């Protein structure tokens, strides 16, 4: 096959349909900078073992730097090369002639692609970390701003107990914190350099692989060549981290879609992240949030895809593994885009604190308080729960809130009820009582915000 890296053994040409099927360039062109970086480091290793002299090394590295600066996606994609490794080598040979043909000494595309992809994961991981931290910061400032805004808290989508909007924000800050640790864990585990593992058995040149790993910014070199070229755990782990994070973002989106609904009216989304209907002029649809919710699906697909591709693959490299990139790229691109979009949605979000308060006041969100009140007067909780159930039934029938009953009306349900009951039924009382670690009381929310600030101050030092 003309122009391919492996033409010598072949006399017949590849079928054009096979070439189209086999080429990975339309996907892996994104690894061009990583492939050049890896090649520069490999040139250094080849000089160290005497395959390249100083002059040769110098001109190869110079040409690779030039390529890195001048190369464009269009140039790569129109080259007809089989994959990004073939493209870079071809472009190098075009620049420096036969010298370029020395670069692949002792190297295989198997250790090369494994290295390139890990370098890409490290770059992308850093970008994700930054985006996740920005979303956390956006949530924290909204939490600060809405620390006292009453919001009905739900279970089963039924109003359960009042919380604050700030408390809701902080719930997502926690999820994002775990998402961050998942990316960092994955990055720490993948931080071992496969280069110098050859095709599968190791390289025949006495390369200092630890030094090579460090030159590429890895913590160390991989320990087993078979594993090094056939390990895609990092793809699985990042797709898994992406899936969990998208699950969180989809819940975030769903909450806000509901809060934004005409029925709830708790928030108003900015024009900047909503769209209209072509038919119904009154509509302002939460498209950004619906897309975040919807895109979780394709990210889960990438996770299932890579797990299924890797299952039962024999040692070591198999071409099946070329299927690793498309899903990974899409999953991490999608995760990054959704994280940025979530930040943008929060940026222009307005909370209607009158609506949230009114909703929290309806729906008997203070029923637990009444039960706790009866408990404070000596009634066992199980009995108190039953009594309050009866009060709620009567209140529903009378279409009023618990606190709208008069004292004698309440006393008809239980003699232990005194006039001090009313101060326990206010929203403020409900909130203030949730004052243990992690609760929705203002003091706890402020404590949580303060803890974050302290943590960030430490992180900056
Ligand atoms: N394009 C291939 C991939 O992405 C590169 C490795 C090819 N190695 C081989 N022996 N054919 O996996």
From TrEMBL:
Swiss-Prot/TrEMBL keywords: Acyltransferase, Amino-acid biosynthesis, Arginine biosynthesis, Cytoplasm, Lyase, Multifunctional enzyme, Transferase
Catalytic reactions on record: L-glutamate + acetyl-CoA = N-acetyl-L-glutamate + CoA + H(+); 2-(N(omega)-L-arginino)succinate = fumarate + L-arginine
Listed GO biological process terms: L-arginine biosynthetic process via ornithine
Say which domain of life the source belongs to.
Bacteria
Kindly report, in one word, the top-level EC class recorded for this enzyme. lyase
- Tell me its EC number(s), please: 4.3.2.1
Gene Ontology cellular component annotations, sorted alphabetically: cytosol
Pathway in which this enzyme or protein is active: Amino-acid biosynthesis; L-arginine biosynthesis; L-arginine from L-ornithine and carbamoyl phosphate: step 3/3; Amino-acid biosynthesis; L-arginine biosynthesis; N(2)-acetyl-L-ornithine from L-glutamate: step 1/4
Q: Does the keyword Cytoplasm apply?
A: yes
GO MF terms, alphabetically ordered: argininosuccinate lyase activity; L-glutamate N-acetyltransferase activity
Give compartment(s).
Answer: Cytoplasm
The text of the family note is: In the N-terminal section; belongs to the lyase 1 family. Argininosuccinate lyase subfamily.
- The name of this protein is Argininosuccinate lyase
The primary gene name is: argH
Where in the full protein does the shown chain start and end, and how long is the full protein? 3 to 463 of 643
């Amino acid at each position: 096959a003309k122009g391919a890296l492996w033409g010598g053994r072949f006399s017949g040409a590849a079928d054009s349909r096979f070439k189209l099927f086999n080429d990975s360039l339309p996907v892996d062109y994104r690894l061009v900078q990583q492939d050049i970086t890896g090649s520069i480091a490999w040139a250094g290793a080849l000089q160290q073992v005497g395959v390249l002299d100083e002059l040769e090394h110098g001109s190869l590295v110079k040409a690779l730097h030039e390529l890195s600066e001048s190369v464009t996606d269009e140039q790569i994609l129109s080259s007809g090369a089989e994959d990004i490794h073939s493209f870079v080598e071809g472009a190098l040979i075009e620049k420096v002639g036969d010298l370029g043909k020395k670069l692949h000494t002792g190297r295989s595309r198997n250790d090369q692609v494994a290295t390139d992809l890990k370098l890409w994961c490290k770059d992308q991981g850093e970008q994700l970390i930054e985006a996740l931290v920005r979303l956390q910061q956006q949530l924290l400032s909204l939490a600060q701003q809405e620390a006292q805004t009453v919001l009905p808290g739900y279970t089963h989508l039924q109003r359960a107990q009042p919380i604050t909007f700030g408390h809701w924000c902080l719930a997502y800050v926690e999820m994002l914190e775990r998402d961050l640790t998942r990316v960092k864990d994955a990055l720490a585990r993948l931080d071992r350099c496969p280069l110098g593992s050859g095709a599968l058995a190791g390289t025949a040149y006495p390369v200092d692989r630890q030094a090579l790993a460090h030159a590429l910014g890895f913590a160390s070199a991989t320990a087993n060549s078979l594993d090094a070229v056939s390990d895609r755990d990092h793809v699985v782990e990042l797709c898994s981290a992406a899936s969990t994070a998208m699950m969180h973002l989809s819940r975030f989106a769903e909450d806000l879609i509901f809060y934004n609904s005409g029925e709830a009216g708790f928030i108003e989304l900015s024009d900047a992240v909503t769209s209209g209907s072509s038919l119904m002029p009154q509509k302002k649809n939460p498209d950004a949030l619906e897309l975040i919710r919807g895109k979780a699906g394709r990210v889960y697909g990438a996770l299932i895809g890579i797990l299924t591709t890797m299952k039962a693959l024999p040692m070591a490299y198999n071409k099946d593994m070329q299927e690793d990139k498309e899903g990974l790229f899409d999953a991490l691109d999608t995760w990054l885009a959704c994280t940025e979009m979530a930040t943008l949605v929060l940026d222009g979000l307005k909370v209607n604190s009158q609506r949230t308060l009114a909703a929290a006041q309806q729906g008997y969100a203070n029923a637990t308080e009444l039960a706790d009140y009866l408990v404070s007067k000596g009634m066992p909780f199980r009995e108190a729960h039953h009594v309050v159930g009866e009060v709620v039934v009567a209140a529903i029938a009378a279409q009023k809130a618990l606190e709208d009953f008069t004292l004698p009306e309440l006393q008809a349900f239980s003699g232990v009820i005194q006039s001090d009951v009313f101060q326990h039924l206010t929203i403020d009382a409900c909130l203030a009582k949730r004052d243990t670690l992690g609760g929705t009381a203002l003091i706890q929310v402020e404590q949580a915000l303060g803890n974050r600030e302290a943590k960030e101050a430490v992180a900056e030092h």
